[in-house]
Design brief:
- The protein is an alpha+beta fold.
- It folds into three domains: about 150 residues, no CATH class; about 180 residues, no CATH class; about 110 residues, no CATH class.
- About 45% of the residues lie in helices and about 10% in strands.
- The strands form three sheets. A five-stranded mixed beta sheet has the order 7-6-5-8-9.
- The termini are far apart.
């Protein structure tokens, strides 16, 4: 069985038939609500759709999942079918023994076995898949038994906790300045550094740490959102986040002044050269881009031409895919409306940011000596900066409210007492709202780390972001003022 995915933007380029036009197919997909990324399963010999599996793909599409999630879920079924084909079976005739064999293959026997978190997600998809087939009367029963309380028998027996990995002050500055910024451990300029855009990496890390946003959220931020737009006075930025947020859960994001200044430095020193070099290429691709003609900063809206039609969008409702192709007429011609750009002139993708991170880690480890901070045991992730933000802000708010308390039992009593207090002043719930967690239970995972001796003698967040004297106390002040209803 072959696996393909719906990709409407490729139709105009590759669909060549006299029977139906690309525009008609695109309109049909839109009318039927078939999202980009919807998996399509094809018979290897005839290349015709396999109806039961394509029905499941359609079912996933109606769940309004993100494009990347649709593709990931589609690949889970594809991998299972490939494994079963070697056993002279398939996903529609699989037995419980076949599925147990597949679990062993994925978690133990393949070249790079997957961990519990990955298998937990895959077992959920498989459970949903066979539940769908039974509900639609395609199968009489699930091939795997349902365990107690409706639990999937193939799921991991142990529920893994959150993998909270945070950085100390010294680790963060070493990561930002040496790994991403191209300095030597002694803060001198490394003339052998061959990184192409060190200020971009520094700005990205400062915004990630200063705002607590997830990678997909801060890497797709637009210039007007972060305040780097004509007519705006600069300073800290506050904007609404939704389409790029996890689960589409809306929340207000605050980027402190020093993090915005770090982005401004990138825009002044590096971004113009990238934009100038890429302008001609963007002009050639203008018909495939969303060319913005009006930006209403106060209203949070943009208006322009996409696919030959004038369209208007609320910035918070623009997903990552749309943001990637959004441009405006700048000094050198067309340029991306997103803050971060790469050599092609548009927003860097996931693979690009991953490569920046990996190169930074390689440089950090190569230059590490007795003068450098102890590096994490595992390669750092962009998400570690979000964890650091959460832990530092939570600790600071606790100490701000009750003072530092060395007695661990007293601190635990304090955590419980917060839950009975005013919900708007509860540090846990304040941080939960700022992070956009679906449930405060997720934020509770950080409690076990608030007693760690991270920079115990450093003022909370002092000097982490930027190169000035600003502190994360500014963030805490902003958070508390918002909790009290004082909007600045």
């Amino acid at each position: 069985m072959d696996l393909a995915f719906v990709q409407s933007d490729l139709l105009e380029r590759y669909l060549d038939t006299d029977v139906i036009s690309a525009a008609e197919v695109t309109a049909l997909l839109e009318r039927r609500g078939v999202l980009d990324g919807t998996p399509v399963y094809l018979d290897e010999e005839t290349q015709m759709p396999v109806p039961p599996l394509c029905e499941f793909g359609r079912y996933l599409s109606t769940s309004l999942l993100a494009e990347t999630t649709l593709k990931d879920y589609g690949r889970v079924i594809g991998r299972l079918d490939d494994h079963l084909a070697a056993l002279d079976s398939d996903v529609l005739s699989a037995t419980e023994t076949d599925l147990v064999s597949y679990r062993g293959h994925r978690t133990q026997r393949q070249k790079k076995p997957v961990g519990g978190a990955v298998w937990s997600r895959e077992s959920f998809v498989l459970d949903d898949f066979y539940g769908f087939l039974v509900d639609r009367k395609i199968l009489l029963n699930r091939p795997a038994r349902v365990a107690a309380r409706g639990r999937n028998a193939l799921a991991p027996r142990v529920r893994a906790g959150m993998d909270i990995r945070h950085l100390t002050f010294e680790q963060y500055r070493y990561l930002r300045d040496v790994g991403l910024g191209g300095q030597l451990p002694n803060s001198q300029v490394d003339r052998t550094f061959r990184g192409w855009s060190p200020l971009r990496g520094r700005a990205g890390s400062d915004i990630a740490l200063g705002s607590g946003m997830r990678w997909r959220e801060w890497a797709t931020v637009l210039l007007p959102e972060i305040g780097l737009w004509p007519g705006l006075s600069g300073g800290g930025a506050e904007f609404q986040l939704q389409a790029c947020a996890k689960y589409g859960k809306a929340r207000t994001v605050y980027v402190p002044e020093d993090a915005a200044a770090s982005a401004d430095l990138f825009c002044v020193l590096e971004r113009p050269d990238i934009v100038r070099r890429a302008a001609r290429g963007l002009e050639r691709k203008a018909r495939d881009l969303f060319v913005v003609s009006e930006v209403d900063v106060a209203g949070g809206r943009v208006k322009g031409v996409l696919d030959g039609v004038v369209r208007e969008y609320e910035m918070s409702a623009m997903d990552a895919k749309l943001r990637r192709i959004t441009v405006y007429e700048g000094e050198f011609g067309l340029e991306a409306l997103t803050l971060f750009v790469c050599r092609g002139g548009l927003m860097p993708g996931a693979d690009a940011w991953k490569s920046y991170r990996h190169r930074a880690w390689a440089r950090m480890t190569a230059l590490a000596d007795h003068t450098t901070p102890l590096l994490p045991t595992r390669r750092w992730r962009w998400h570690d900066l979000r964890h650091t933000y959460a832990l530092r802000l939570l600790t600071y708010l606790e100490n701000l409210m009750d003072g530092e308390e060395p007695d661990l039992k007293a601190r635990r009593r304090r955590h419980r007492s917060y839950l009975t207090g005013h919900i708007r002043h509860n540090p846990l719930l304040i941080v939960s709202r700022r992070l956009g967690h679906a449930s405060p239970e997720t934020t509770y995972e950080y409690l076990q780390y608030t007693d760690d001796l991270i920079n115990e003698f450093e003022a909370a967040f002092n000097g982490w972001v930027g190169d000035g004297e600003a502190t994360y106390a500014e963030i805490a002040s902003h958070v508390l003022s918002g909790a009290n209803g004082d909007r600045r």
